[in-house]
Write a structure and sequence with these properties.
Blueprint (H helix, E strand, L loop, with lengths): L2 E5 L2 E5 L5 H10 L1 H4 L12 H16 L4 E7 L2 E12 L4 E8 L8 H15 L5 E7 L3 H9 L3 E12 L2 E11 L5 H10 L1
Helix pairs in contact: 1-3
């Protein structure tokens, strides 16, 4: 099993079929919280839908074209972090994530994104990581800002959620811009 250990109580774990019941309960408990930002919430109606998502992530992992990871805090899944794709020719990827409302504002997702970035630059030898966030999702946008990403622009009306078009802000980070040590010092100081 693919895992990234971040701290004693925090890790990322490759999603597998055995995670479907727990992940469905997490989505179900956070529908109102996720719905403004995640277009897939209404179409996720059962564990079968979650299993389809997990199997798609495993298929991408097998093809070396992305993956989906569960964010685990004290042995409990609290969110998802994944790569939508990996472009090996240019060495870049796009990352997405979401977190249970109960676990927001505790630094878990920022730490998880930082750990995955480090793995992508050191182990996978990628050159660029991109994060796109709904322009109105300030919590999601705060993570790349905290980690030193450059805000590169806004894609206007590129997404559709609940019948409404929305803008996405694009953040990019190049391998040579990643300063893991700076982020860790800032984290420890706060």
């Amino acid at each position: 099993m693919f895992q990234i250990y971040i701290s004693k109580d925090l890790s990322l774990e490759l999603l597998e079929p055995l995670h479907a019941p727990e992940l469905f309960k997490l989505v179900d408990a956070n529908r109102d919280h996720l719905k403004p930002w995640m277009p897939w919430v209404d179409s996720t109606k059962s564990e079968k839908d979650i299993l389809t998502f997990i199997n798609s992530g495993l298929d991408n992992y097998a093809k070396r074209n992305g993956f989906q990871l569960g964010l685990i805090v004290e042995k409990k899944m609290v969110g998802i972090l994944g790569l939508h794709y990996i472009n090996w020719t240019s060495g870049h990827t796009e990352m997405g994530y979401w977190l249970s409302k109960e676990y927001e504002a505790k630094g878990f997702m920022t730490a998880a994104v930082a750990a995955l970035i480090d793995k992508l630059f050191s182990h996978y030898k990628l050159a660029r990581v991109e994060i796109r966030a709904n322009s109105e999702n300030l919590r999601s946008r705060a993570i790349p800002k905290r980690l030193g990403f450059l805000e590169e622009g806004t894609l206007r009306q590129i997404g559709m959620n609940n019948g409404q078009a929305f803008d996405m802000v694009v953040y990019g980070l190049l391998k040579e811009e990643w300063h893991k040590e700076d982020w860790q010092m800032n984290r420890e100081a706060s």
